[in-house]
């Protein structure tokens, strides 16, 4: 079931529309919704950059990587040109994870092209405080000097702590602070879906 309306009470408590509830959270984007959002963002990237030439997509681990690959596939489908896709691990650049916990979290960074002079589109699943994006920009500048950095996210849930704004958004989803947005992707989770989940212990 698709439900586009999201309602909040006076205390910011989430009330799913149409009575959609359950232990797995409230579904706000279906597989078809995600597919359409990816294709729309791909078109917007090409339009803004006047074609795919000089553009590179860099997915942020973990779910930004398959999203970046899907965007590249969509661009190749309707433009006929390939866009390079990289993977970025921001673990060493984050300020919200204790250093002792970084080891198990670290993944690989792989940039298939020199990003100097390119317009790099960072791709992530959810934009929240903006701290991960700041870390990603710090990481990118260690690998080169892009002509510009743009940001594409599947979901913008609000609550920014830094002045960071996405250039491309799949969907704005207002949330309460005691809620989380869970993005599930076929490549990692076996299905495509975005849910709003209530944090454990919250009434």
What value does the Rg take, in angstroms? 17 Å
User: What share of residues are in beta strands?
Assistant: 25-35%
Q: State the domain count.
A: 1
The backbone outline, from C-alpha atoms, is globular
User: H/E series, N to C?
Assistant: EEEHEHEHEHEEEHE
Topology diagram in text:
Elements: E1 7-8, E2 14-15, E3 26-29, H1 31-48, E4 55-60, H2 64-79, E5 85-88, H3 102-105, E6 119-127, H4 131-141, E7 148-156, E8 168-172, E9 179-184, H5 186-189, E10 193-198
Helix pairs in contact: 1-2
Architecture overview:
The radius of gyration is 17 Å and the shape is globular. The chain has a single domain, classed as Rossmann fold, CATH 3.40.50. Strand 4, helix 2 (64-79) and strand 5 (85-88) form a beta-alpha-beta unit. The chain is an alpha/beta fold. The strands form three sheets. Strands 5-4-6-7-8 form a five-stranded parallel beta sheet. It has a three-stranded antiparallel beta sheet with strand order 3-10-9. It has five helices and ten strands, in the order E-E-E-H-E-H-E-H-E-H-E-E-E-H-E.
